[in-house]
Specification:
Blueprint (H helix, E strand, L loop, with lengths): L18 H18 L9 H10 L10 H10 L10 H6 L9 H7 L1
Length: about 110
Amino acid sequence: MGTPNYIAPEALSGSDHNAFAADIWSCGVILYVMLAGKLPFEDRNQKSLLEKVKRGEYAMLRQVSEAVRDLVKRMLTVDPQNRITLEGIISHPWFAVGWDPKCLKEAA
């Protein structure tokens, strides 16, 4: 198991899961921290913390744009089948502003 505050809900079950979808979840946690200055899932009791992660129970950001709230919500979707993909993130209105995807391909 990874760091409890960043682990995707499906990784808690111990069964096989899509690592890419789990990484999207963890990146959603990181984005939330960058925007809010605090973790979306916090509790002193680890069992309670993990229950919050399983339920996707966090306070939605208010001081940021609707576009980034939407992106965080999609990244922190509990069901990995419904979670945004990398392609979805790259084409998301909040993420797609101010950079040229062709540059990413050239640098890779």
